């Protein structure tokens, strides 16, 4: 495959199996790429990244065999071998302007290791664009994958990155292709879209085209809008196209690679390619206008690039949304991750309690003259009740469990838990035992 020129000097650093596979796909398109994994065997399967850029981390502890989906071990492996990783990056680095870090949030090596490396990169390459490319798991991947994902995302959002790009494996559900091709398709799409925007804004293209083209500065602005970002895409089957339908697809949730609330985008780019008679200016401008009217930020950064080329057999629309401050899918992962975490901990606790009962008898509790239950009750009575103003329309109970109630408070725009521990309430949203949420919940119970 011919290597195309790029507007930004780019390095791709893939972590874990998924991340390395994606980095290898970038390498196929001529990107400088490094792969990092705790599993030596996975690294051997790559095709395009040179051997001296495939790094095994955590070999001392995990013997090149992976960390079995445990992000805590992925984190340790990266922390212990960070210097080794930075040495290889330093060898490859010649004025790197953009670093893309693909990894799966749901595994072990990438989930735990990526936030450690990304934090270091944001310090070390403070003038470069740092773009994590976080792959979200399928809901069917299981409870621990969702917990891992929630853990990794909660670390990632705190870091000083240029924009967190999301690619959701759940996109597979919308595609209609054989199972062994689906991951490959997502990996190839991500590499192609970055390659497209970097090539179409390169000197080689920009100096030969007049009119609506993206330039290097546009790409830098699009990639540094913060928060979350993703791509949208649509391609016609042949030259005969309903341009409007293609634009609609690339601008709507069904064409996006992750579920983002794009009305909240702070930057938005649209690229159209195809035979010149298929790219009707009025249709393109009207669609952009419609999109702009939907955006909440009326001064969002908007760029378009139109590339007529009569040798092309199809029309392709690529959209890029960045600076998007809300992803319903990530909110769902965090909510499910918290639930699954608690259930796993409770199940472990239960086993411990059962073992205690079988092996040990708490004689202090049997012979105590001041049973614990009474002193706890006394403490509760001593606390003075506080009266809180409750607006019934803004607080809602979403779900109830034996020891936990999930609530939503619309005034602060948050979902959280109220726990019931030994008859006492504790509100996670207010970090308090006495607040309006507790009063609301106890009245409803
Ligand atoms: N898009 C995509 N997803 C992948 C690929 N390989 C694995 N996944 C997804 O990645 C998640 C698992 O992460 P991995 O990358 O396999 O895990 P890891 O970082 O290597 O961690 P360990 O195997 O525990 O050391 C699951 O959600 C898989 O569905 C891939 O090539 N592409
Ligand atoms: Mg692995």
Can you describe this structure?
The protein has 445 residues and is of the alpha/beta class. It has 16 helices and 14 strands. It has helices at 16-28, 40-44, 59-62, 71-80, 82-92, 109-124, 143-156, 179-200, 203-206, 216-223, 243-250, 281-294, 328-359, 363-367, 372-382, 436-444, and strands at residues 10-15, 32-37, 54-56, 98-104, 129-136, 164-168, 228-235, 267-274, 301-308, 316-324, 395-400, 404-409, 414-421, 424-427. Strands 3-2-1-4-5-6-7-10-8-9 form a ten-stranded mixed beta sheet, with helices on both faces. The chain has a four-stranded antiparallel beta sheet with strand order 11-12-13-14, with helices on one face. A hairpin with a 2-residue loop joins strand 13 and strand 14. Helix 6 runs parallel beside helix 7. The radius of gyration is 26 Å and the shape is globular. The site of guanosine-5'-triphosphate (GTP) has 24 residues, from helix 1, helix 6 and helix 8. Magnesium ion binds next to helix 1.
Our estimate of the beta-strand percent is 15-25%
Count of helix runs: 16
| Total strands | 14
At CATH level 2, the architecture of the largest domain is 3-Layer(aba) Sandwich
Q: Separation of termini?
A: 65 Å
Task: Write a brief caption for the model.
The chain is an alpha/beta fold and 445 residues long. The chain has helices at 16-28, 40-44, 59-62, 71-80, 82-92, 109-124, 143-156, 179-200, 203-206, 216-223, 243-250, 281-294, 328-359, 363-367, 372-382, 436-444, and strands spanning 10-15, 32-37, 54-56, 98-104, 129-136, 164-168, 228-235, 267-274, 301-308, 316-324, 395-400, 404-409, 414-421, 424-427. Helix 4 (71-80) packs parallel to helix 6 and helix 7 (143-156) packs across helix 13 (328-359).
């Amino acid at each position: 495959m011919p290597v195309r020129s790029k507007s930004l000097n780019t390095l791709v650093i893939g972590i874990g199996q998924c991340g390395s596979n994606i980095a290898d796909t970038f390498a196929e398109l001529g990107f400088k790429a490094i792969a990092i994994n705790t599993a030596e065997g996975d690294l051997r399967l790559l095709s395009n990244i040179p051997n001296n850029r495939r790094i095994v981390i955590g070999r001392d502890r995990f013997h090149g065999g992976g960390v079995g989906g445990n992000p805590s071990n992925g984190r340790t492996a990266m922390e212990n071998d960070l210097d080794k990783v930075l040495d290889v990056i330093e060898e490859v680095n010649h004025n790197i302007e953009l670093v893309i870090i693909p990894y799966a949030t749901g595994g072990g090596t990438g989930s735990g290791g990526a936030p450690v490396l990304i934090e270091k990169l944001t310090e070390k390459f403070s003038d470069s664009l740092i773009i994590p490319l976080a792959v979200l798991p399928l809901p069917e991947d299981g409870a621990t994958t969702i917990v891992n994902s929630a853990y990794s995302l909660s670390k990632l959002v705190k870091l000083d990155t240029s924009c967190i790009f999301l690619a959701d494996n759940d996109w597979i559900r919308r595609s209609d292709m054989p199972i062994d091709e689906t991951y490959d398709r997502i990996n190839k799409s991500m590499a192609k879209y970055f390659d497209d925007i970097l090539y179409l804004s390169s000197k080689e293209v920009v100096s030969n085209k007049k009119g609506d083209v993206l330039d290097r500065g546009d790409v830098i602005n699009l990639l540094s809008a913060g928060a979350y970002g993703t791509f949208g895409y649509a391609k016609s089957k042949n030259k005969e196209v309903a341009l409007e339908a293609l634009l609609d697809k690339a601008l709507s949730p069904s064409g996006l690679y992750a579920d983002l609330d794009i009305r909240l985008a702070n930057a938005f780019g649209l690229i159209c390619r195809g035979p010149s008679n298929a790219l009707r200016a009025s249709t393109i401008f009207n669609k952009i206008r419609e999109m702009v009217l939907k955006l909440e930020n009326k001064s969002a950064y908007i760029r378009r690039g139109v590339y007529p080329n009569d040798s092309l057999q199809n029309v392709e629309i690529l959209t890029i949304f960045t600076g998007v401050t809300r992803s319903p899918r990530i909110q769902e992962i965090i909510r499910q991750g918290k639930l699954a975490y608690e259930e796993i901990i409770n199940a472990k606790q239960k086993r411990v309690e059962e073992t205690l009962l079988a092996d040990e008898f708490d004689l202090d509790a049997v012979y105590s003259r001041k049973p614990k239950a009474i002193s706890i009750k006394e403490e509760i009575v001593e606390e003075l009740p506080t009266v809180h103003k409750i607006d019934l329309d803004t607080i809602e109970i979403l779900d109830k469990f034996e020891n936990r109630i999930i609530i939503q408070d619309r005034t602060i725009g948050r979902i959280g838990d109220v726990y019931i521990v030994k008859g006492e309430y504790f509100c996670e949203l207010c970090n308090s035992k006495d607040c309006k949420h507790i009063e609301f919940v106890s009245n409803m119970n």
